[in-house]
Design goal:
Length: 520
């Protein structure tokens, strides 16, 4: 189905008048804010439809309907915040937020049973479902302004003035709003010029007085750094850096560990996690949020690492970290960030090798640190296990001199101690850990381990093809340790040779046990 790409409106946006650069940036971007007249989905930046052609992009049909109906009822309705920050700079938007001059009651009156509460109604937010029940609900939030804050949360009140709403937002790149039907853009105080210029230049700046904005909500420091790392051309403005440095005494303040952890994990998932960590370090934020990493700075390690200290090695690892399928990139990168955190506490001069160190026990020390971070950030048990598992086991991943049977035994041990999900994580961790040296050799080793583990899986995994009942029936045993001993022996035999893991063969092996010691 082809889309007619004529824009619905041609109203010019409110940009900082007369700047050809911004006009051009805006002209190149505004396709996004047009809808396909055919199916009413947003058009992409290149003018294609997000729905009826090249359907790979996100679809937001509901946004059209919601903004159109609010506007027809005499309210103002704009697309705002993260959607524009991402879409206008070529990043795939995750979701779309709508802000409106209508109060939640007015939104409810207009959309009736399409409105759902997400618990945010007192703050002005409701969810509006799509008309025909297809697609995702969209958050619609009433324009509001902050009356007072406690350093994290604000008491707000509703306003009909979009300029006021945008002025309370954290960063100029997040304080842009666009009426998708007219193409008119708005920014803090009403004028979009500054926000558009900053988006174009990739400049991350607080809206208004940075120190005040940080004092109102300390999380904004971490958010500013996250957005500065979201894509290549972004950077934190010099004023923002100065404001953060001047606000260190306020941090972390009332921020909960959970919010800090969530924000840092999101930051690690951006395009430039290393840049984020270096900013934390340069701006003095490490002692506030990740004090565990401080001792890695200046902690020399051995020459074969090629990098100067544990911090530098960790940064290289972070940059190389590629999460295995199904594992959140932010979480995996956090695991890499902490994997050697036990080294400073365990470093000891190596006998007979001046300038070299041993780090005996750094895995356990790192595991404890990873557990403490997970605890402080109130992470889920599976996430905590992943962080601890990588720290505890990253040195034990098999190398080229392991036999297939030894790899299988390692796999089984990891599975029993941490769960099978840790296996691909440890292999990815090994690849990241060795990114700076022996890359090809490491990749060949991990490829072999994957092949051996895949074979184990294909032959029934570590699950034996027989069970305790079979052992009892064949050997006439009652439940007890003797049954367990036979099963253990069978499991060891299967680890050495997975081809034995068929019911027929194992029953024969059980029969051989009649005169064996396990039977005694
Ligand atoms: P993403 O969804 O990728 O995290 P986002 O910009 O949509 O990015 P949200 O946390 O969903 O981030 O917030 C939506 C919008 O609300 C932001 O774009 C910003 O305008 C505003 N906002 C969010 N958090 C704050 C804050 N702490 N202080 C001020 N404004 C904020
Ligand atoms: Mg969002």
């Amino acid at each position: 189905m082809a889309c007619n790409r004529t824009p619905l409106t041609s109203t010019r946006p409110a940009t900082s008048a007369g700047c050809p650069d911004i006009e051009a940036f805006w002209a190149g971007s505004r396709n996004l804010l047009r809808f396909c007249p055919n199916c009413r989905h947003f058009l992409r930046r290149d003018g294609g439809c997000t729905h009826c052609e090249n359907g790979g992009s996100r679809e937001f049909p509901n946004a059209h309907d919601i903004t159109a109906r609010l506007t027809a009822a005499g309210f103002q309705a704009v697309v705002v915040g993260g959607f524009l920050r991402k879409a206008l700079t070529g990043l795939p938007p995750k979701d779309i937020d709508i802000a409106t001059s209508a109060t939640p009651d007015e939104v409810r009156a207009l959309f009736g049973n399409r409105v759902r509460s997400n618990g945010g109604e007192s703050h002005g937010t409701v969810l509006v479902l799509p008309p025909a029940g297809s697609g995702e609900p969209i958050e619609v939030t009433t324009f509001r302004l902050d009356v007072e804050t406690d350093g994290r949360r604000a008491v707000t009140r509703f306003t009909r003035d979009i300029g006021e709403d945008l002025t309370r937002r954290d960063l100029t790149v997040n304080a842009l709003a666009v009426d998708p039907h007219t193409g008119q853009a708005f920014g803090p105080g009403g004028n979009a010029g500054g926000a558009l210029t900053d988006l174009r230049d990739g400049l991350i700046r607080f809206v208004g007085d940075g120190r005040k904005r940080i004092a109102e909500d300390r999380l904004r420091v971490l958010r500013a750094i996250r957005f500065a790392c979201e894509s290549d051309n972004r950077r934190l403005s010099d004023e923002a850096k100065a404001d953060i440095r001047a606000s260190l005494h306020l941090l972390p303040g009332p921020l909960s560990g959970r919010r800090i952890g969530e924000e840092i994990v999101k930051t690690l998932a951006t395009a430039h996690p290393r840049r984020a960590l270096e900013m934390y370090r340069d701006l003095g934020l490490l002692p506030k949020f990740l004090p565990e990493l401080e001792p890695t700075i200046g902690q020399a390690q051995n020459a074969h690492h090629g990098s100067n200290d544990v911090w530098a090695h960790t940064m290289e690892t972070l940059e190389a970290a590629e999460a295995p399928e199904g594992v959140s990139p932010g979480l995996f990168r956090l695991a890499m960030l902490l994997h050697d955190s036990g080294k400073p506490a365990t470093a000891a001069p190596k006998q007979g090798a001046p300038g070299e160190f041993t780090f005996y026990g750094h895995e356990e020390a790192g595991q404890r640190i990873a557990g403490a971070v997970a605890e402080r950030w109130q992470m889920s048990n599976p996430d905590r296990k992943l962080l601890e598992g990588v720290a505890a086991e990253h040195m034990a991943v098999p190398t080229g001199d392991f036999s297939d049977a030894a790899i299988r035994r390692w796999g089984r041990r990891i599975e029993q101690r941490w769960g099978a999900a840790l296996l691909p994580v440890l292999l990815a961790a090994r690849e990241a850990d060795r990114a700076g040296r022996d890359r090809d050799k490491t990749l060949a080793e991990t490829a072999r381990i994957r092949a051996v583990l895949a074979e184990v899986k294909a032959t029934g995994g570590s699950q034996l093809a027989v069970g305790g009942k079979d052992v009892m029936a064949r050997l006439g045993l009652k439940p007890g340790p003797a049954v367990g001993a036979v099963l253990k022996k069978l499991a060891a035999a299967v680890l050495d040779d997975p081809a034995l893991n068929s019911r027929e063969t194992l029953l024969a092996l059980i029969d051989e046990e009649t005169s064996g010691p396990a039977d005694a």
